[in-house]
């Protein structure tokens, strides 16, 4: 083994760490990030401040988890961080559960009809008032359920239980979760607070960072897919020139 391979091996071990360290570090990142998001919007009401800070940090953690795979394919030296995508995914979903609980208790007060955009009319019946709110929440719920399934399937035990093929299929379809989260968040960042008959609040500062984050994840995924395609094509290429005698 060369000295550089030895150094690389040491680096890989240092970054991949044991699962307990990874859980602890990811939990600390989740708490610190949420705290910073909270600080950034001190003027908002408590309910909006907390549920948005936790929702934002959940999105960031799922984005990290989504980015690690393609990043390590593009830059093989970063392979050491691959094990971290599990913990980032798990704590991203954990934060999403808290985000949802705050909405249920603090916003719609357990009235599930309100969650889907209905409000109680003075005449005593529910009327549809906020179509977009209802649809965005339905998408959020689909994302949350899907995220919980993926998080529960993110252990060596579930990997053994499900078998390699089913487990891999489940984990590879994580981009569906990512797309649901992107649509859900985009609605609340760009559309929900716009209104033609009410003063709209100041735009959320997260609008541009969110767009950049989504573009970075897409660019990494496209880049990694292109690299995989090119490698496979180059490997397959010699066969195309084989003559019947060589075959
Ligand atoms: C994986 C699941 C979820 C993620 C990652 C997520 C993430 C987010 C993010 C990033 C925001 C925007 C925060 C901001 O404007 O700065 C948001 C807003 C919101 N989400 Fe979710 N969400 C999820 C699930 C849900 C579910 C299940 C519900 C409903 C039960 C929900 C209801 C809301 C509401 C009502 C808002 C607007 C918050 C406000 O204006 O204070 N979300 N979510």
From TrEMBL:
It is a multi-pass membrane protein. The chain crosses the membrane at residues 21-38, 58-76, 88-108, 128-153, 174-193, 205-226. Pfam families: Ferric_reduct. InterPro entries: Fe3_Rdtase_TM_dom. Keywords: Membrane, Transmembrane, Transmembrane helix. It is found in: Membrane. The keyword Membrane applies. GO terms for cellular component: membrane. Residues 55-181 form the Ferric oxidoreductase domain. It comes from hydrothermal vent metagenome. This is Ferric oxidoreductase domain-containing protein.
């Amino acid at each position: 083994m060369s000295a550089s391979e030895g150094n690389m091996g040491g680096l890989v071990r240092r970054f991949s760490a044991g699962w307990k360290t990874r859980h602890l570090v990811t939990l600390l990142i989740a708490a610190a990030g949420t705290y910073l998001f909270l600080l950034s919007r001190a003027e908002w009401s408590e309910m909006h401040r907390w549920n948005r800070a936790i929702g934002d940090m959940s999105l960031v953690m799922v984005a990290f988890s989504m980015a690690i795979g393609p990043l390590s394919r593009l830059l093989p030296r970063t392979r050491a961080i691959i094990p971290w995508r599990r913990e980032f995914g798990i704590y991203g979903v954990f934060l999403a559960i808290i985000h949802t609980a705050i909405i249920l208790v603090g916003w719609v007060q357990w009235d599930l009809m309100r969650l889907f955009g209905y409000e109680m009319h003075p005449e005593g019946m529910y009327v549809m008032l906020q179509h977009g709110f209802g649809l965005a929440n339905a998408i959020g719920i689909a994302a949350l359920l899907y995220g919980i399934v993926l998080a529960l399937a993110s252990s060596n035990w579930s990997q053994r239980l499900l078998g390699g093929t089913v487990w891999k299929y489940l984990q590879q379809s994580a981009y569906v979760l990512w797309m649901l989260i992107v649509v859900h968040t985009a609605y609340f960042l760009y559309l929900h607070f716009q209104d033609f008959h009410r003063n709209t609040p100041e735009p959320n500062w997260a609008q541009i960072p969110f767009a950049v984050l989504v573009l970075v994840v897409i660019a990494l995924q496209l880049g990694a897919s292109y690299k995989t395609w090119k490698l496979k094509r180059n490997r397959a290429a010699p066969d195309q020139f084989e003559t019947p005698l060589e075959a």
